[in-house]
Amino acid sequence: MSIEVNNESSVDVDETALLRLATFALDFLHVHPDAELAIVLVDEAAMEQLHVQWMDEPGPTDVLSFPMDELRPGTEDAPTPAGLLGDVVLCPQVAEAQAQTAGHSTLEELLLLTTHGMLHLLGFDHADAEEEREMFGIQRDILVGYAMSERRRR
What we know:
Blueprint lengths: L1 E6 L7 H14 L7 E6 L2 H12 L7 E5 L16 E7 L1 H11 L3 H16 L7 H25 L1
Parallel strand pairs: 1-2, 2-4
Antiparallel strand pairs: 3-4
Helix pairs in contact: 1-4, 1-5, 3-4, 4-5
Protein name: Endoribonuclease YbeY
InterPro entries: MetalPrtase_cat_dom_sf_prd (IPR023091), YbeY (IPR002036), YbeY_CS (IPR020549)
EC number: 3.1.-.-
């Protein structure tokens, strides 16, 4: 997999953990090993600009996804074709505030947001209750599986 993590924010982030999570998630969803993904971390001003430009909503948000080739999850027998998955843009400052409210670490919040953004790139949404159940269930499975793989790795 070609996964690029680019931290353009002023916040120190464990980029290796984001890379390992993204690799785990793409394997979990049977995305072709030659698919390309970019994860970009930006400050609040840059995120607010993107949020206004693309969603017509004020203020910074936590995560935005910009799909490219409209790839969808594959199966073990038929992985997703190679292509450009797209970009996941994260705002660590917003993630930090959300993490404090949720009672977990900023890294845990960034891992959740990265997973969430990647699922959007693969066509998942949460516009209605059924879609939300499916997307959030897969999100949970990825995060639990990743946490278990990290414990085994150590």
